[in-house]
Write a structure and sequence with these properties.
It is a single chain. By secondary structure, the protein is mostly helical. The model has no long low-confidence stretch (mean pLDDT about 85).
């Protein structure tokens, strides 16, 4: 019982382990790929606002898989991210929107407006 209570306060131990593995994998990349992954990681962490650890780790695992595979076959970084790395990052991030706090807030806003306009369908997903 203690581990579940502690994990609710501190976060999943499995996600923390996966994050350490992700960072170790990042350090194994050639320098230029590592620099690109670290820059994308920083942007995704700030811009992404992902609050679910499992979704965050899925995203980071996919990111490192992409760069490990690309480094292994020598794919140039520009072929991975294109000419606009911000567009790449935001498109990449869109695949993980389920974990973003803003998704919950968008749903909350829509429900509130439905109630305010009398269009409430009665399907509550949580308190406002």
């Amino acid at each position: 019982m203690a581990p579940s209570w502690i994990e609710q306060v501190t976060g999943s131990f499995e996600d923390k382990k996966r994050y350490r593995q992700y960072k170790a994998r990042t350090k194994q990349l050639p320098e230029n790929y590592r620099t690109a992954v670290e820059a994308l990681d920083r942007y995704l962490m700030y811009f992404g606002s992902i609050t679910r650890g499992d979704i965050l780790m899925e995203m980071l695992d996919d990111l490192i898989d992409l760069f490990e595979q690309s480094a292994a076959v020598g794919t140039p970084i520009r072929e991975i991210v294109g000419e606009d790395p911000v567009e790449f990052a935001e498109t990449f991030l869109a695949n993980y929107s389920e974990g973003q706090w803003i998704k919950k807030e968008r749903e909350r806003l829509a429900r509130a407006i439905e109630r305010a306009t009398g269009e409430d369908t009665g399907k509550e997903e949580g308190p406002l």
